[in-house]
Specification:
This protein is 34% helix and 28% strand. By secondary structure, it is of the alpha/beta class. It binds adenosine-5'-diphosphate (ADP) and magnesium ion. Residues 11-12, 14, 16, 34, 36-42 line the site of adenosine-5'-diphosphate (ADP).
Length: 262
């Protein structure tokens, strides 16, 4: 499990995260949602050790700041909001870097690289230069890389973790669903998934728990139906939103309420 308490982050002269508490459980997809600038990426970066913070963090019961980089790399993979590569790698090379970071070598790493590319619908892209791909294709390559790094969702040292910062923002609807299913399957296999999301309807379909952020603090956290409420959402997002429920999937639908013309 991930348990963070009383997290504070200051960047420059700005307090970006304030008194923040966060929990995520293995076997679940935990979604982080909230307006632009509310601190979602900063929270991911604090949880993954990329930036310093004040407060307490335990992942699988241990303080990750004490781990060696290679042990940390085998415990959790991170898909950043955007990734720039300055070397002319092929798709295969980028994904294989993940397998190697996860401690896999030789034939096993090669097989895993191919399997991961198939899972993000990029078979046949192995030899393509990464820099020539579209934004959405690059995002799926990066996801394949991260998947290879923490391939077994439930390892001998405990559950592994996927941190995904807006994994579907650049994707068409078909690939959005594919990537969300992949994330959910990882959780069902015993891993933990923490994903920053903008699409509240996709979030309603795939998340087990939601953490709603507002100006560096948690506005609401809990099961989907408890957080996706029109009063809370309308206030935090600053626009009128309605939540409809149905007996069949999707069980919850968040829709904007258009103002009647004057
Ligand atoms: N290096 C930095 N220096 C100062 N402010 C920053 C820095 N990085 C991010 N911020 C600010 O912190 C806030 C939260 O940013 P971020 O976590 O990226 O938001 P989100 O991912 O929710 O859109 C924003 O107001 C952003 O401008
Ligand atoms: Mg962000």
């Amino acid at each position: 499990m991930i348990e963070a308490t009383d997290i504070h982050v200051t960047l420059g002269s700005r307090r970006v995260l304030n008194r923040l508490a966060f929990q995520a459980h293995p076997g679940q997809l935990t979604a982080i949602v909230g307006p632009n600038g509310s601190g979602k990426t900063t929270l991911i970066r604090a949880l993954t050790g990329e930036i310093g913070f004040a407060g307490e963090l335990r992942i699988n019961g241990i303080d990750p700041s004490g781990l060696k980089p290679w042990d940390l790399a085998r415990m959790r993979g991170v898909l950043a909001q955007s990734t720039q590569l300055s070397f002319p790698f092929t798709v295969f090379e980028v994904v294989r870097l993940g397998a190697e970071a996860g401690g896999y070598v030789g034939q096993a790493a090669t097989a895993m690289t191919r399997a991961a590319l198939a899972r993000v619908d990029l078979e046949g892209y192995e030899g393509r230069p990464y820099q020539e791909l579209s934004g959405g294709e690059q995002q799926r390559v990066q996801l394949a890389r991260v998947l290879c790094q923490v391939w077994q969702a439930d390892g001998p040292e405990g559950p592994r973790w996927l941190f995904l910062d807006e994994p579907v923002s650049a994707l068409d609807i078909g690939h959005q669903l594919q990537v969300m299913r992949l994330a959910r399957d990882y959780a069902r296999q015993g891993g933990g998934v923490v994903a920053v999301m903008h699409d509240l309807n996709l979030t309603a379909m795939f998340a087990d728990r939601i953490v709603l952020m507002e100006a560096g603090e948690v506005a609401a956290a809990g099961p989907v139906a408890q957080v996706l409420r029109p009063d809370i959402l309308s206030r935090v997002y600053g626009c009128r939103l309605s939540v409809m429920s149905a007996a069949t999937e999707p069980k919850l639908l968040v829709v904007p309420v258009t103002e009647a013309p004057a």
